[in-house]
Specification:
It contains 16 helices and 17 strands. By secondary structure, the chain is of the alpha+beta class.
Amino acid sequence: MTTTAGALADQLRHLLGPDRLLEGDLARNLYSHDGSIVGGDCGIVALPETTDEVAACMRMAHEAGVDVVPRGSGTGLTGGAVPLEGGLVISLARMRAMGEVDVANSCMWVQPGVLNLDVSTAIAHLGLHYAPDPSSQQACSIGGNVGTNAGGPHCLAYGVTVQHVLGVEMVRPDGQVVVLGGVAPDPPGYDLRGVVVGAEGTVGVVTRVLLRLTPLPPDVRTMLLDFLSVSDASAVVQAVIAAGVIPAALEMMDRNMAMAVEEFVHAGLPTDAAALLLVEVDGTPAEVETATAVVEHVAREHGVRTVRVAQDEEERALLWKARKTAFGAVARVKPSYYLHDCVVPRTRLVEIMEAIGEITEREGVMCLNVFHAGDGNLHPIIALDRSDPDETARAMSAGDQIVRACVAMGGTLSGEHGIGVEKRDYMPLVFDHDDLEAQACVRRAFDPDGRMNPDKVLPTGTRCGEVGLADTQVPEGTWI
């Protein structure tokens, strides 16, 4: 630990007490990783519990010139919460307070460490829920969801996190506390709330979030469709929406994933099918009846083998358990996995699924697919044993080819996991120099010293002023 870092640790220990400042090797190793395969180098870890404590931590880090990495539950899949070169990790995991529900405005302030699922559980008695529902919602935090602009199966109809965050309280890099957005439907001025959502902790530390709460639907119906062809299942996704039905959720699972999940959950999934679609429609009873009929009609036109309709809430919950535990089920196949969450236009689903199959077969790696088919948000999961260098290299190669294939089909890099470290260097595939420079300038407006979650999201060379010259070499009067 450097002298500067040591002095900062002394200050933080005095502020938080020894139990809420982690410095040991075990803790530093733990906080050097998240849910991705990225590993880093953690300096010290602070565990504040209030906005005032976060602000004090930030002021101390600012005065010491130490980098800061905000962290939620550590479930991220792109290395976004992984410190790369020491510095201070501020974990928001202990900030789990929920405010009173503003029933009149259907909103509620919560601290960033609150788990996603806990919000909906806490307000269900009011007939409300929080719509974004990542598959990891039992473990992921609201703060992390804000950082990555998280989605989830039901975001096809309801939208992703940015549509459900009305405002944020944030501590700037110098320790100043600001509130951006609010209950008012259209606050004047620039939408800085929208800048913070999805910024992956590069502009400050979010300490409270004003959530939009959504009424529970009066009726819901969940269907499981199985097909002997991935192409037929993919075609149904496009055809259902083209027929005028936007399901609340429209998820796809291929045979490899269905087999892994069925062994894990025992939900009665047909493991001999090439692909499964989990379709949920909601609304009034009449709307649900109409949408169900359309889905069944379209599916039968594309060779569906069976249509299983959940008969009660218990069966519906079991089908969703199968979907939402899919990532964990991969552990039954291989000890680790590597995935991207690229998005392609829905009209290219058939092509991209064929391309993923060709790529993974060519590289000799096993791929399991489970994804948000309705909005084209893919999750090709390449199972691997990271102790095998050759298999790991082939998995990385396959992942790289899949990303490039998605972009070539008019897609983009991420639907909900963020950019972090894993996809940072792919940013020039979808943004030109001017686009990246504009994003770097926005980031610099919030964080002029570049200490907030450094080396994430934007590739090196895109920050304002990164012109290859030291400041002292720039001619006087030059605007950079």
